[in-house]
Amino acid sequence: MTEIVDRSETVDAAQPASQIDPHVIVLFGATGDLAARKLLPGLLHLSNTGMMPDYRIIGSSTSELSDEDFRHLARHACDQFAVGKISLLQWANFEKRLTFVSTGAGAQALAEAVGKAEDEIGGGDVRRLHYLSIPPAADRDIIQLLADAKLVERSRVIMEKPFGTDLQSARALNDMLHQYFDEDQIFRIDHFLGKEAAQNILAFRFANGLFEPIWNRDHIDHVQIDVPETLGVDDRIAFYEATGAFKDMVVTHLFQILGFMAMEPPTALEPVSINEEKNKVFRSMRPLDVTQVVRGQYEGYRDIPGVAPDSQTETFVALRCDIDNWRWAGVPFFLRTGKCLGGGERIISIAFREPPKSMFPDNSGVGTQGPDHLTFDLADSSKLSLSFYGKKPGPGMQLEKLSLQFALHETGQDADVLEAYERLIHDAMMGDHTLFNTAEGIERLWEVATPLLDAPPPVQPYAKGSWGPPAISDLIAPRTWRLPFERRWRSGSAS
Ligand code: BG6
How far apart are CA 155 and CA 157, in angstroms? Predict the structure, then answer.
């Protein structure tokens, strides 16, 4: 069960809103799933906690809505997905800043809507933030619309993932963006990098002396980045049928997490250094080997209206990935994600090598519960666990698996966590690229993915509620998947 935390009044602004210029935010895809689940509730939360400068939000999509309709839609979304209560005053304050213009109304209408919103909050100094929360196929049209409406000046543009659908389309999209926007205006978002727990990987690795010396092939046997979901895809079938689990999750979120996990220490906590180290990891990744990929599709997926009866879209993917550099040569990274699986988790699990020689007899229990592990849980209220063999109390020398666990919510600070999109929208308004991706990084990841995109193995069926097709065991053998966990997180630390 996810713990509900009332965050309505609690977050301290990382940077006072007064230091951010007034903003007109144009939200393309405003009637879509992401806007409802994350973006509108996130903007409301930033507004309620004093982290927004003066602002207006213009929703836009192919639908024809009045301002009033859009406000209703936004209210419904926030009622469903915002965390914590929304007071009348908070809503009134937010709602009056919302308007809507259909993309079908054209460049002139969009320019007028933005101009009017700018006049209301200060005219010439107002910044524009265009958020393209739309499928990849629509990106180019919206960029052209922005250019035609002359809304490039004073603007920044957030590009949702997936950025393109393969190497060629990502390059074409970068080329087109660069025709109108400078690179420092472009924010390629991957919300996993906005997760508090993902940034904690950097703190954990580089702010402590303890772990970095063992963060390499001499001490680590393998790494698992495992993001099973219990959710299905029924609400977003048009997007999903054209996208699939690999493009939706792996080439984006899971590879980005792998970048944080595997990178060398950056020279500074700033965008160029962090992206350079992440991109070096991506450059060292071997192109995917299709014999090391399992694609799955849950039983019943093809019965969903809108899905082709012979659909080969994968709702599950597990694969092995190798990084050919001095730190990681020979250490496999196993990645897995999928829909309608037996549990919803987001973990990175690092398995350490076993000691070269054991003085403990076979019947002592040593090694029987897998290698010792370090596990990061990337939930909003993150957790960390270091498991190891220790002695069972009493006579003799029987060993069992024990663990040291940390859970953010036990510190009483979890109400301060910004949801990933909130953090990233706020960063984009400040012009901070640290947690955003570069053109080079994204293109390289599509390049790594090319063998799989060119010759995807057929999808294998799996039962809803399982952990994927049976072939995933062979993929990781002789090792085993950590999930489902043998033991739950300790109850004091359970989510
Ligand atoms: C999105 C994917 O980017 O990430 C979804 O499109 C997925 O399919 C979601 O469910 C998972 O994100 P989170 O933050 O809920 O783990």
Answer: 7
Residue whose C-alpha is closest to residue 258's, from 313, 327, 316:
327
**Is 253 in the active site?**
yes
- Residue 354 in tokens: 């076993």
Which residue out of 37, 83, 229 has the highest number of ligand 1 atoms within 8 Å of its CB and is therefore the one to mutate?
Answer: 229
Quote the tokens at residue 318.
């597990």
Does the CB atom of residue 229 touch ligand 1 within 6 A?
yes
Distance (angstroms) between ligand 1 centre and the Cα of 163 equals 15
| Confidence grade of residue 59 (pLDDT, cut at 50, 70, 90) | very high
Sorted by sequence, the CB contacts under 8 Å of residue 27 that are 6+ apart come out as 35, 39, 40, 57, 58, 59, 60, 131, 133
Residues 494 and 382 sit within 8 Å (Cβ to Cβ): no
Burial of 16 per CB tally in 10 Å (0-12, 13-18, 19+): exposed
Is residue 472 within 8 A of residue 294, CB to CB? The reply is yes
Per-residue exposure over 397-432, b if at least 16 CB sit within 10 Å of its own CB, e if not: eebebebebebbbeeeebbebbbbbbbbbbbbbeee
208-254 residue pLDDT tens: 999 999 999 999 999 999 999 999 997 789 999 999 999 999 999 99
- Our CA angle for 410, 412, 418, nearest 5°, is 110
pLDDT of the residue at 29: 98
